[in-house]
Amino acid sequence: MLLAGDFGKAPATRCCSENGDQRKNIKEKSDINIAAVVGNQPVCESTDNGDLPSYVAVFIEKEVGNDLKSLKKLDKLIEQMTEKQTCILKVLTVSSEIPKRIQSALKNAEESKQFLNHFLEQESHLFSSINSHLLTAQPWIEDLGAMINQIEEIERHLAYLKWISQIEELSDNIQQYLMTNNVPEAASTLVFMAELDIKLQESSCTHLLGFMRATVKFWHKILKDKLTRQEIYPYFMPEWYLAQVLMWIGNHTQFLDEKIQPILDKVGSSVNARLEFSRGLMMLVLEKLAADIPCLLYDDSLFCHLVDEVLLFERELHSVHGYPSTFANCMHILSEETCFQRWLTVERKFALQKMDSMLSSEAAWISQYKDITDVDEMKVPDCAETFMTLLLVITDRYKNLPTASRKLQFLELQKDLVDDFRIRLTQVMKEETRASLGFRYCAILNAVNYISTVLADWADNVFFLQLQQAALEVFAENNTLSKLQLGQLASMESSVFDDMINLLERLKHDMLTRQVDHVFREVKDAAKLYKKERWLSLPSQSEQAVMSLSSSACPLLLTLRDRLLQLEQQLCFSLFKIFWQMLVEKLDIYIYQEIILANHFNEGGAAQLHFDMTRNLFPLFSHYCKRPENYFKHVKEACIVLNLNTGCALLLRDVLQSTSGQPPATAALNEVGIYKLAQQDVEILLNLRTNWPNTGK
User: On the CB side of 610, how many CA atoms lie within 13 Å of its CA?
Assistant: First the structure.
């Protein structure tokens, strides 16, 4: 242990013994070592054991030096050194753990590499599969692309058609509004159409753009002209001056009869004051109409309104005020050539439009009296009744024309309308041919029958008889008919509607025939089992406790019953009567030829056939007539022959063989109830019997 003085001297002596080069070497050596800095002092970690004393000496010299008072720092230095030692130990500990972490990281990296390689292999396999699938699906993709292109093309076409449909619908609406004189709504619709035209300007469909623009311009011009005419002729309010004239006549009647007429009577004048006053006002009306009509000829709505008002004026003038038809009246103005031809044209136009409307109505084929049995006997569909009402209205409008030639021109218009309506019914009927028993087909048939019936009734009307006489005179002058036809018209054997009635009756017969053929085919299909019945081996009536219907006849009778009930509900009474009678006629021949003549019958078979016919088939029609067996004459008489007892059958056969074609043969047939079948037919039926006694022949 060093003394305090020695401690102080030794370092000092050593310091004195070191030169500057030695100090420099120590400094350089300490710089080469790995140092851990604590505060501002370097500590060498890699100093060899041989250099440690030198380092300590240098450190002591630096920290304490020759000053003994610096020894007070020793505790602090020891503390600092202890902290440095602790830090160095921590560093060494951490340094020993780093290799383990690195090894663990390398292991994780290796595993990640293996996973990555596995994923790359999967990716390569998946890539190959996708490429293979794409190659396989390529034709499908191409086909699907083509189909998508087609669909897109169709969608474009559909959109194009929708635009056209919308344009046409708007045009129809404008037309309807103008026909009903609803100008504000027509203008609003035109504005909407113009807005659509603006929206379409960006479209590349040039034809659609042109169509839209042309339609807008068309209706714009018509609407502008209509509004212009209404401004030019504001005095035509709806019918003012006609009503004013009637009011003047009515207001002055009492004055003229009580004040003026007595004066005229006193002076012996035959003038009727009231009629002369009315005739004077009529002259004013005729003058006014003559000025107004040329301005209204080419506006269908206004002209039609004018005609309506004139006709109403004429009706009230004659019926209420007793104006003579021999005096000048408005009908003479309407009968002038230009005005009359325009009237005919307008009547035809509006009639055709109404026909379009009535046939396109949802209730066109429904009877408005369907719930009233007594009224709905003819089951007339709404379109047919509306059409005949239209014809009746036209008749009322022209029946007061002053000349027969003008009336005949209107009659020709009516006949043309009837023919046009018949053609339209035929077109609708052809669409329903596959469902000839359906509701619409039956409604068309009812319509045809109704129109034909009404026209036949009109033919006996005095007004149309007068027209027939007038037509006879015209045809005789023009030599347009043969002598036979003229004779028929003159003798009233034919009528002015005969041509139309004949066409309608032919259509009715064709439609009924189609229905009968349809039901008859169904009945024949249902009778296939009945045709194959074993008539030759059936038990006799005595061997059965109770006779019952042949099971093979059930489908036949059920089909017949169902169709009769269906058509009875859908056809009017007269049509259904014709239908079932036509069906019975075919059914009678079919059963007689295909079932009876095609088989042989023993006693039981003949009895069974008789039971099936008389107790089951014939009664199906007993609701429609009192003696339905009279409509099955072939079947009825065949059953009689087949069911004659053996003695009567033998006797009848002998009579027929011995008196062929003689009156006794006819008497013998009549005696057993045979009136329809010929003698040869009866002999054939007798030969179909198998229950003849064995006579040894």
Answer: 19
